[in-house]
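Q: Joint fold for the lines below.
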Amino acid sequence: MPTGFSSSDGTDLLRAEETVRARIGEHDFDFASLAAVSNVFRVANTARYRFERSVLRPYDLSFTAFTVLWVLWIWGELESRHLAAEAGITKGTLTGVVKTLERRGLVERRSHSADRRLVLVAASGDGAATMERLYSEFNREEARITQHLSAAEKQELAHHLRTILRTLELLDD
Amino acid sequence: MPTGFSSSDGTDLLRAEETVRARIGEHDFDFASLAAVSNVFRVANTARYRFERSVLRPYDLSFTAFTVLWVLWIWGELESRHLAAEAGITKGTLTGVVKTLERRGLVERRSHSADRRLVLVAASGDGAATMERLYSEFNREEARITQHLSAAEKQELAHHLRTILRTLELLDD
DNA sequence: AGGATATCGTTTGGGAGCGAACGAGTGGAG
DNA sequence: CTCCACTCGTTCGCTCCCAAACGATATCCT
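A: Joint structure:
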């Protein structure tokens, strides 16, 4: 249901610009930043929703569960807190997600032999096999939603986003 | 805690590229699309987290509650399902969010006189006043996280994202 | 050695978030 | 006028998501 906001033609953003200018004044309002940032949220929202309903649905995996499994597939066994950081969620959230993945037999947990506070998480054989099939489809879908961008434009997009990412890290008060 | 993945230098993406190529083969793998799409998710995740902890925290508003209030601020009174679509959430989720906003006195609900199935939602005086102060800060933060992008680059970024948005709408099977 | 200090993952409480089922209300077909 | 199909917002069950508090473990200091 959440198509993620209404229109992509910019109608709503223009309306927003009018309203905001009228209410908080010309100064103190950076429209270019609004357009850039709000579109990031819109695309992320809409794309996430689409991925969950298309490629992820048959596997009964949430986007987050997929992300966690993907990270493990790429990096191999990881300590909990690193896995959480890599997946972009808190350790508290990870506990629940890993519990879900473990219940489905896609992931295995074991405790560190030397430091018993640590918990190591790894994809199971099933988990890896699943990702091998699933990620092909996922990547095809990534290509599908970006099909109207040239390779150069995709690179440009990724580059600008990495610039923001770097800024966010520096701002990390 | 979720800084949103580890590094913005592309280290992890390179690692991902290696692994994926090794496991699903050269063909059937579009790295440019992976880089573009995954960075959208990373930025959205990290930025959302930052907004919630900086500008939104003092107002005790979640990112979604802020979005809903913002939409009402821009568009005025809206029917529930349109508000949900505009905010990018399902109507079921909206019921809960509006309940929260209503409890805080930022929003008002009334039923349509002609069609009694409909519920109309609008920002209250308090809600509008709150947004007037809050959005100034929010927009400043949008500018801050995009500070290393020129105006032209922000426009380029927004443009590419809108291209994806348009594709997502067309793909809407 | 032993007590403060720090760090780990888990738990808890509360707000999102979805799909599906639901009751109330509308409007069309006969 | 009365079924019937449709649409509205709410509710329900489940997963995610965070901050904060917690118990267990490790380390540092003297």
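Q: Anything notable?
A: Residues 1-2, 49, 52, 79-81, 91-92, 94-95, 115-119 of chain B lie near DNA strand D (CB under 10 Å from a C1'). Chain B has two domains: 1-53, 62-171.
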